[in-house]
Amino acid sequence: MTAISFALSPFIDYKVVAFFLLVTVSLIAMFFDIAPVLLAAFLSAMAWNYFFIPPRFTFAIQGADNVILFSMYFVIALVNGALTFKIRESEKNANKKQEKENTLKLYNTLLNSLSHELRTPISTIIGATDTLQEDKSKLSEENRTELISEISKASLRLNRQVGNLLNMSRLESGFLHPKIDWCDLNELVYDVVNQLCDNLQGKKVHVKISENIPLVKLDYGLLEQILLNLLHNAAIYIPENGIINITAIISKEKKLLIVVEDNGLGFPENEISHVFDKFYRLKNSKTGGTGLGLSIVKGFVESMNGNIILENRKEGGAKFSIEIPAEIAYLNDIEHE
Amino acid sequence: MNNAIEILVIDDEAQIRKLLNITLESNDYKVKEAINAREGLLMAANHPPDLILLDLGLPDESGHIVLEKLREWYTKPIIILSVQSSEEDIVKALDAGANDYLVKPFRTGELLARIRSLLRSSLSESENPTIKSNDLEIDLSLRVVKKNNDTIKLTVTEYNLLAILIKNEGKVLTHQYLLRAIWGPSYIDQSQYLRVYIAQLRKKIEDDLNKPLHIITESGIGYRFI
């Protein structure tokens, strides 16, 4: 900057050069630490003195006004540098504080929903075992069986929540590397439906996948969890005799398209944009649920470079559309014997 | 009972040991318990049990190492218990000679079924060429497969795949194991062949293709014939 000003010095006044140099110091203060900033301010003052203030090429200064000018420049450059640096510092601190507050908020939501979600089944287990241990004669055989089945349900629920938490932390840690391998979609979808047959009792599930759909190269475990969460959600929120449709096709762009739709109440339009947020729960939803299920779905879909869209069907009910790019192998490519 | 079947449980969690103890004893197995790797190896060597239930997460030594040490001389069934449902971990243990695995929390019925099936196959290593499993019958000497007494037409590869699954009834076979055994070592990464042939086999031997009762998918790990 000094060099540029020097080149221009025949055309501009040395007082103007001072402003150029000040700007430079300010710029430096925006990007560097305090020590180099002060050094730059000092050097710029020296350079200005040496190269520009007459007599040029000496550190000597002629005239009282030039002395005052120089000392003022020196102070302004230093203060300017220091102040700019200070502003930057305090901005950084403000950001940090904001970040901290956000994390804290997230933790609080997590702890609230967790303690509820975990305590409920734990209370069931503790309460039921207490009753079972206490007085055997008073308890009818029917109630005994009932209590034992409640314990069993509660522990399965606990187990599912822990699974969700582990999946969430896998996502959060950024260590999620899909292990892709060839998947038979019919096998996978029916596998999920069969796993959930207890939850889906009284509901109809229609799977519409061509028997000749090609193999796709995806992470079986991740896609399995995606469908498990979507179906589990649907199973909870649709009414008795509700219908769930699962379709899968390969698009013209060779992407896997999976649609899971139901004929339940759908989602409130103003909340649709939030349902994939971590810990988000619908305003009027039933108790239970951590608000993790759908955010895991989204995270897993995105970890395979796909995307998911939720919309309400015109006929009523929710429609989740998943699109994942994947390598495809047509069965015909594999020679039959 | 003096000639009860003996099972050694190697697990550091007292609750799990107790649960296993009660479950197994009430099903007429004799149970011995070891609380860590050192004790487990010692007990196995002093008095070899008929089957070992080995936890992978032991305090003094990894279950993988215990498995390796046991497999240097112990030939009877070993079932791995693991809290990590990490597929890699399980595949590693299966490839290192574990006969089967269970992920905690597991269901008691499943545990007993695995134990029964492993004990059955280790006791009856007879030269009987025909194996029956519900509605299926396979004659290994004649290479004939029948379902409800009707002969099923299978291609050579389909037959080989079914035969290896049936010979290891109840045991989970990893994708790599099946690919190597049927197609050869250079096909280890060509799992699309396996997927296609499993689907074809299911079409021929299962009543409901979408609720397979014989060839069970172990997601991310392999297949199991029951």
Structure described in brief:
Chain A has 337 residues and is an alpha+beta fold.
Explain what this protein looks like in three dimensions.
The complex is a heterodimer of chains A (337) and B (226). By secondary structure, chain A is of the alpha+beta class. Chain A is built from eight helices and eight strands. Chain A has two domains: 1-175, no CATH class; 181-333, Histidine kinase-like ATPase, C-terminal domain (Heat Shock Protein 90). In chain A, 56% of the residues lie in helices and 14% in strands. Chain A has a five-stranded mixed β-sheet, with helices on one face. A three-stranded antiparallel β-sheet of chain A has the order 1-3-8. In chain A, α2 packs antiparallel against α3. By secondary structure, chain B is α/β, with parallel strands linked by helices. A five-stranded parallel β-sheet of chain B has the order 2-1-3-4-5, with helices on both faces. A four-stranded antiparallel β-sheet of chain B has the order 6-7-8-9, covered by helices on one side. Chain B has a three-stranded antiparallel β-sheet with strand order 10-12-11. In chain B, β3, α3 and β4 (78-82) form a beta-alpha-beta unit. Chain A binds chain B through residues 155, 159, 179, 181-184, 186-187, 190-191, 193-194, 207, 215, 220-221, 224, 329, 331, 334, 336-337, and chain B through 87, 105, 155-157, 175, 191-196, 198-199, 209-211, 217, 219-220.
CATH superfamily of the largest domain in chain B: Response regulator
**Rg of chain A computed from alpha carbons, rounded to a whole number of angstroms:** 34 Å
Number of strands of chain B: 12
Q: Could you say which overall geometry of chain B the principal axes of the C-alpha atoms support?
A: globular
- As an assembly, this protein is heterodimer
Spatial sequence of strands, sheet with the most strands of chain B: 2-1-3-4-5
Proportion of residues in helical segments of chain B? 40-55%
Q: Runs of chain A with pLDDT <50, length 5+? A: none
Low-confidence stretches of chain B: none
**H/E order of the elements of chain A?**
HHHHHEHEEHEEHEEE
CATH C-level class of the largest domain in chain B? Alpha Beta
Question: Largest interface, and how many residues on either side?
Answer: A-B, 23 and 20 residues
Distance between the termini of chain A: 78 Å
In what range is the share of β-strand residues of chain A?
Answer: 5-15%
* Radius of gyration of chain B over all CA atoms, rounded: 18 Å
- How helix-rich are the residues of chain A, as a percent range? 55-70%
**What's the SSE pattern of chain B?**
EHEHEHEHEHEEEEHEHHEE
